[in-house]
Amino acid sequence: MLIRLILLLTIVPIAELIVLLQVHHAVAEAFGTGVGLLVTVGSIAATGIAGAALARQQGLGVLRDLQQRLGRGEIPGQTITDGVLILIGAALLLTPGFLTDILGFSLLIPMSRAVWRRVLKQRFQRMVQSGNANVIFVTPTSSSTSEPAAGEPREPDIVGPAGNIPPQSSTGQDHS
């Protein structure tokens, strides 16, 4: 996992730099060096501004949907997934480069985000089926404390050191 992360953090910036240089070179050949630089830097700024506006719009829409679903007592699984994908898309648009911008926009646009959601769902299902993922089920009666749910047997509370305690009868009398 660490090696993949290191490769990702190394290869993506190099690929972005190569694409930026190619775009600059192509525009500079067609219109001149000054225009090439202006178009390259301007396009990076424009995608950042457009991406921020789209991320805000989509994020607010997901937030409204989340509130509505929670208000109806529904589990907002798809809405939460959309929120995470929008957050990742917005973060990708903050990084300068055309490749990350394309990926970021694909996570912000609802139709392509649905494709990503479906792909991720299938991948997680395969991971669970192959035993490569841990699944935690949470039910409405679950709690973060060690208290059992209603109707479940409760362990006795133990306060202080335990010693030899004589057995008691059902009347509460010692048999010693």
Automatic annotation (TrEMBL):
Coiled coil: none
Entries under PANTHER family matching the protein: UPF0716 PROTEIN FXSA (PTHR35335:SF1)
Annotated GO CC locations: membrane
Segments crossing the lipid bilayer: 5-24, 30-54
Region (Disordered): 139-176
Signal peptide, first to last residue: none
Protein name (record): Phage T7 F exclusion suppressor FxsA
Keyword Lyase attached: no
Superkingdom of the source species: Bacteria
Composition-biased stretches (Polar residues): 166-176
Keywords: Membrane, Transmembrane, Transmembrane helix
A matching Pfam family: FxsA
